[in-house]
Amino acid sequence: MKTTSAIPENYAAWRHCITVQCGIPLTADFIQRRLQILRDPGEYETQRFAATYGTPHLQAVIGWYEQAEREL
Questions:
Q1: How many whole angstroms separate alpha carbon 67 and alpha carbon 47?
Q2: What is the C-alpha to C-alpha distance for residues 14 and 37, in angstroms, rounded to an integer?
Q3: pTM tops 0.90
Q4: DSSP string over 7-43
């Protein structure tokens, strides 16, 4: 039996999680707002994300938002 991580480990899984499972369209406005928050180490949400999932995953997610932005 194959198990999958609840936390996306690559861009395709992350995009599927956001757009299909959560039903959130990756619009330019949404992406820009998320990047603004995630790039700011002083933001509570960013600090909480890094504490929960680790800085490497935070950097990966920022990269995935940047990739989604390039695909618009």
A1: 22
A2: 18
A3: yes
A4: S--SHHHHHHIIIIIS-----HHHHHHHHHHHT-TTS
